[in-house]
Amino acid sequence: MLLTDSIANFGRFCSFLGRVFAWPDKFSISFKRVINEISKLGVDSIPLVIIISVFMGAVCTIQMQLNVTSPLMPAYSVGLATRDIVLLEFSNSILCLILAGKVGSSIVSEIGTMRVTEQIDALEIMGVNSANYLVMPKIVGFVMFMPVLDIICMGTSFVGGYLVTVFTDLIPSSRYIYGLQAMFQEWYVWYGLIKSVVFAFIIVSVSSFYGYFVKGGALQVGKASTNGVVVSSIFILLFDVILTKLLLQ
Questions:
Q1: Of 25, 39, 50, 210, which residue is most buried, by most CB within 10 angstroms?
Q2: Nearest-CA neighbor of 19 among 194, 139, 197, 106?
């Protein structure tokens, strides 16, 4: 039964994406909505990203220093390990898991409320492709802006680690900065950006799907919001494994 429902939902999801990426009725309206969604989903997430990243970088630096106690390990290894952890995992996977809660629940609530209040039905009656009109700008806007959030996360995480070196005596600041620069691999940055774009698409598409097909009232919208966040998080973790295997061989 569970397998049958999963296959049916996957087929409905694929059909839903086909409607989402249909040819827009008016490009001017779609463009304005994309700009609006960039502001609502992307720009409004910057303060949360900065706060999370600063503490994430600080905690990572402290834990690396406390666990690297061997005198054979150079002092700059703390900065090097912090940099690689942030670039490879924290700035994309962990960040997107958190954004799945903020952005995903917001999308499900917005579209789900429009469904239960029959606003989507009104769009369909007027001959508007509601899936394309409502969802496509969200996907395009968030996917376009997600690399910016990823880069902000990388930078502020390094700043968080640097603040630990300034306000504590765990590691000299010069050694930390040298560790950030040592043996740098540019591909790690591109790897993180690629993963963040894929995860952004998962967050918006899955959340929109659950909101679009809500049936019932406010209680069902709340349940759909929870389901959207949970399923988005599961797919983020799944594709994290797949992309790591494909991109870091």
A1: 210
A2: 139
Query: Which DSSP state fits 73?
Result: S
Each residue's pLDDT expressed in tens, for the chain with a length of 249 residues: 667 877 888 888 888 888 888 888 788 888 899 999 999 988 999 999 999 999 988 988 888 887 776 666 777 788 888 888 899 888 888 999 999 989 999 999 999 998 888 888 888 888 888 888 889 999 999 999 999 999 999 999 999 989 988 888 778 888 888 888 888 888 999 999 999 999 999 999 999 999 988 887 778 888 889 999 999 999 999 999 999 999 887
Distance CA 111, CA 207 (A): 9
Provide the H-helix boundaries in the chain.
2-20, 27-37, 46-67, 77-85, 95-99, 105-116, 119-125, 130-167, 173-181, 186-212, 218-247
* C-beta pairs of 239-244 under 8 Å, 24+ apart in sequence: 239/195, 239/198, 239/199, 239/202, 240/93, 240/195, 240/199, 243/194, 243/195, 243/198
CA distances from 60 to 55, 74, 157, 158, 227 (A): 8, 17, 9, 10, 31
- Specify the pTM: 0.90
